[in-house]
Amino acid sequence: xxxxxxxxxxxxxxxxxxxxxxxxxxxxxxxxxxxxxxxxxxxxxxxxxxxxxxxxxxxxxxxxxxxxxxxxxxxxxxxxxxxxxxxxxxxxxxxxxxxxxxxxxxxxxxxxxxxxxxxxxxxxxxxxxxxxxxxxxxxxxxxxxxxxxxxxxxxxxxxxxxxxxxxxxxxxxxxxxxxxxxxxxxxxxxxxxxxxxxxxxxxxxxxxxxxxxxxxxxxxxxxxxxxxxxxxxxxxxxxxxxxxxxxxxxxxxxxxxxxxxxxxxxxxxxxxxxxxxxxxxxxxxxxxxxxxxxxxxxxxxxxxxxxxxxxxxxxxxxxxxxxxxx
Length: 326
What we know:
The protein has three domains: 30-131, Immunoglobulins (Immunoglobulin-like, Sandwich); 137-247, Immunoglobulin-like (Sandwich); 255-325, Immunoglobulin-like (Sandwich). It contains one helix and 22 strands. It has one helix at residues 2-27; strands at 30-38, 50-56, 73-74, 81-89, 91-101, 118-122, 126-131, 137-144, 156-162, 178-179, 186-193, 196-206, 223-227, 232-237, 240-247, 255-257, 264-268, 273-279, 285-290, 295-299, 306-314, 317-325. The chain has a four-stranded mixed sheet, with no helix packed on it. It has a four-stranded mixed sheet with strand order 11-8-14-15, with no helix packed on it.
């Protein structure tokens, strides 16, 4: 009887230690994350009547305005930068920002309608700075591995690394940046990126490992790419920085005029179009509209002089074109 009690006690202590260690390990996967959003160019936005809320996977997509836990506050009195800090589990987090008007909970006043959501990968305490309505786009990277020698697809994985990969996360540490292939020749990955300039390189990593040692070449230079406000494809060749080809997959098939434009921009044959968005050179959305007619007239008289991008969306995807505002 005593022997049985001793064994049970040992088992209980072992189980308690396991639970404790498991709880401790789980606690280590939570981090303090700060989100900011710059509302300076948001239109419409009235700080006197509008509150800014976050919603996302970390908030179980709670409707904006229902729970003040997810309400953002101005960084300082009178500031147009709003901030929110929370303890969030490591891994992928999706989110968006929303205006809540006169305290009425609603999904109707988000940065944009529908997908995509903003997406980040949390690996430690950090801050993510955002600009209202700066919508990310799908950018596909392809790399031809034919020149890579040695390269064993059975023993090595291909990763993309760079400022576009969670701020130069070490290749192999985050599986979301592993590239895939159907023929062991061309490897691909599609990333959701904001407009801006990025540096990157491709890396070989032993299966299940992580390392900086397997890059296309040692040291500088890095590859560079400027992301616009349209979905795009980049075709590269391993080890050849001069071989990159940046292409936009969609051809603009709608009639848009005049260009340059002073007051009203017209877009014809929009019977199949569901949405039109206009972005400035920084990626900030300055116009958005749902479309129900064969022709759309967009008032641009109050826009500043410069180059703008029109995204026209139908059920097949998005087409983009540029116009000049005089």
